[in-house]
Amino acid sequence: MQENISRLRAEIEAYDLSTPELLDQFRIAYTGRKGQLADLFDQLKTVPQEQRRAVGQELNQLKQQALARFEERQQELESATRNAPADPTFDYTLPAVPNQLGTRHPLNLVREEIVRILSRIGFNVAEGPEIEDDWHNFTALNFPENHPARDMQDTFFVHRTPGEPEWLLRTHTSPVQVRVMQTQKPPIRSIMPGRVYRNEAISARAHMMFHQVEALFVDENVSFADLKQTVYYFVQELFGSDVQVRFRPSFFPFTEPSAEIDITCLICKGKGCNICKYTGWVEIGGCGMVDPAVLEQSGIDPERYSGYAWGMGIERITMLKYQIKDLRLFTENDLRFLRQFEAVQ
After folding, report:
1. What is the distance, to the nearest Å, from the Cα of residue 343 to the centroid of all Cα atoms in its chain?
2. Which pTM value belongs to this model?
3. Nearest to 210 by CA among 90, 111, 103
């Protein structure tokens, strides 16, 4: 044992510690849990009892010596690294590498603004699946069996086999209204933002995937006047108090009566331009009183309750708000386009 201790002391004193790599090798070989010192401590139980105390003290001294040499050299190397002269081959006058942060997508910015505006008057957010069954997407919303929307030229059908349930990519967020009415009791005040899909050719004014947001209010004695005042409030909060609103009679299978919502053109301020086709008005969405048949299909008594629904395309609202002329820009991931909205965060 004494010979091993003497040999190990000589090795520790003579070990080359000139580099961090050699220092780490020294730690592993001598002071680590599986190093040579640990092995000698394990062999201490084989030393005769009368010599064990003296040998143990000598081993502890050797361990402290090895640790002291390791820590001293470690501090020297760290100090040398901190005080090392600047690299003469590196140009410290070069500008720093820019750390550019990402920006919010304009559609997300507008969607969140819409949610904030309507949440202030009591609307909560409801969501539903993007792959829907025919009943929620069409039948429950009063679409007749021969309606053009049920044709594959207008709708992306995922599964369409005679005699089996039909599944499709939802064509509007109105199915979420049905699901909300099925699971909640009036009063209901919800908005439904989300992606929708229609089988359309992609152009500057149309896309096969876009975003909608719809609002639903069901309670006793809800009237068209309630609907109009909500729309007036929403438009003025989103676009400004000087923007005018008008309602034009229209038709939707799930509302009766129904209307289109127009606002004064934000480009020409109502004077007439090519964007508004020189009418001074642009359409932003549709609205109406929920058809009693839709209420009944969803499990709500139409004799006691009434409601209104209205909705719009988020892309159209965003294009009007930021005067964007090509719908395709929203999905092309062009950084030159997206970085224009950094100041809008």
Report:
1. 19
2. 0.68
3. 111
pLDDT in tens, the chain (345 residues): 777 778 888 888 888 888 888 888 888 888 877 788 888 877 877 888 888 888 888 888 888 888 888 888 888 888 877 776 667 787 778 787 777 777 889 999 999 999 999 999 999 999 999 999 999 999 999 888 888 877 777 889 998 788 788 899 999 999 999 999 999 999 999 999 999 999 988 888 889 999 999 999 999 999 999 999 999 999 999 998 889 999 999 999 999 999 999 999 887 888 887 778 888 898 999 999 999 999 999 999 999 999 999 999 999 899 888 888 888 999 998 888 888 887 665
* Residue 238: other Cβ atoms inside 10 A: 19
Q: What are the distances in angstroms from CA 263 to CA 12, 22, 105, 120, 286?
A: 87, 77, 24, 22, 12
Domain extent listing, the chain: 2-82, 106-344
3-state secondary structure of 135: helix
Domain 106-344: which CATH class? alpha beta
Could you please report the per-residue DSSP string of 15-52? ---SSHHHHHHHIIIIISTTSHHHHHHHHGGGS-HHHH
Two tokens at 153?
């030229």
Sheet of strand 157-159, all strands in order from the earlier edge strand to the far edge: 131-133, 167-169, 157-159
Residue 256, annotated as binding a ligand: yes
3-state SS class at 106: helix
What burial letters (b/e) apply to 20-37, b meaning 16+ CB within 10 Å?
eeebeebeebbbeeebbb
Question: How many of the other CB atoms lie within 10 Å of CB of 199?
Answer: 14
